[in-house]
Amino acid sequence: MNEVKTASTLAMLGGGQLGRFFVQAAQNLGYKVTVLDPDPDSPAGKIADHHICKKYDDQEALLSLAKTCQAASTEFENIPAASLKYLEKHITVRPGSHAVSIVQNRILEKSFLRENFFPVGDFAIITLEKDIQSLDSSIFPAILKIAQYGYDGKGQIHVNNIKELKDAFSKFNFSPCVLEKKMNLDTEVSVVLARSVENKKVFYPIIENKHVNGILDTSMVPASIDEDLSKQAITIADKLSSALEYIGVMAVEFFVSNGAIYVNEIAPRPHNSGHFSIDACRHNQFDQQVRSLVNLPLADTSIHAKAIMVNLIGDVWIQEGKVINPPFTEITNENTIVHIYGKKEPRPGRKMGHFTVIGKNLTDIKDLVDAARAKLSKR
Ligand code: ADP
Ligand code: MG
In testing the pocket of ligand 1, which one of 104, 106, 156, 188 has its CB within 8 Å of the most ligand atoms? Predict the structure, then answer.
């Protein structure tokens, strides 16, 4: 497989923070990047060599990418699979439309997992009101999740019985959904991996994740789960990437419940929980995304430090109803690295940046995280 030569132009579909980190990694390796994102203020669009400010299914924009770029990747699972399919006719696209079309739809994703005997929690597919009548009540308490376009806990309603489920389904305008049994979680972990076209795979260490209000709050490496569970998580992620014929960087989110591991969902892209790799590894997940796209060898995934990543959501910027400039210089030190994504407007729950604390032991790292958080919440 020939590598795509430096000075070539890569296409990035999606202009969020993940796209921005991709642009930086690609430019560091000598590539130009064209970002497609309809938002004129998109974080990646601002630093890209070119920004096409059009929708993801705009035929002219896609044609222009096909003509001017040698390879394309995505940072956002809701890119229409049809757009990727169109680009695939002309240029290299990683991940491909087939894998993305499955994991961007919770119904297809969950069905794929069940059909291929991957461990998943109890769930039911709800596409019509009559699907609700035939449900076994043992599924409650449960979470109704819209099949497409949900993120950060959005598009999810907790339901305790048939009546609440009917109300929730109508709130979602009867859009196709999955209903998941609520699990008692011991913890949550994720695996970020990269797979090359030659079937080489590299795995970052298992990450342990804590969510607050459905949004990722912290990611810790190494995870505190035992070795056997870690091995199971890696094995499942490995098999999943093969089963999806996946090329590029992907992440698998897992639930650990009563000592057993279950797949929660798959992200066809680098993942928020993998941001520790920017500061705790020589090669981060975006570097691997570029490498797998242009056929450069995948790089080392080992950590040179332990790490906790903390998401900075819009709430940090909003104090007493006013937008403030949080004191990031005060929390920055040799162990604490702040990354701000350049989004124009902070909104509650919106991911605006993150910081990572690296160090030799997790106790000291946790103390630094607490100190940083205290400084940021001081009024
Ligand atoms: P998103 O696409 O927003 O990441 P997820 O399905 O991963 O959606 O849900 C977000 C978080 O909500 C999960 O990481 C977990 O903390 C919680 N959650 C989701 N589904 C379940 C479930 N079936 N049981 C228990 N907790 C859940
Ligand atoms: Mg998730």
Answer: 156
Same structural domain, 139 and 30: no
- Burial of 321 by CB count in 10 Å (0-12 exposed, 13-18 middle, 19+ buried)? exposed
For the Cβ of 143 lying below 6 angstroms from any atom of ligand 1, the answer is: yes
Q: Is the model's pLDDT at 3 over the cut of 90?
A: no
| Residue 182, ligand 1, Cβ within 6 A | yes
Does one domain contain both 307 and 244?
yes
Instruction: Please tell me the total count of domains within the chain.
Output: 3
Tell me the whole-structure pTM to 2 decimals: 0.97
Residue 84 φ then ψ, to 5°: -65, -40
Reply yes or no on whether the pLDDT at 123 is more than 70.
yes
264 and 313 in one domain?
yes
Distance CA 79, CA 186 (A): 33
User: Cα dihedral sign for 151, 275, 355, 374?
Assistant: positive
- Asked if residue 153 has pLDDT above 80, the reply is no
Q: How does pLDDT run across 62-73, given as a tens digit for each residue?
A: 999 999 999 999
Q: In this structure, are 266 and 305 located in the same domain?
A: yes
**What is the CA(300)–ligand 2 centre distance, in A?**
26
CA of 152 to the centre of ligand 2 (A): 7
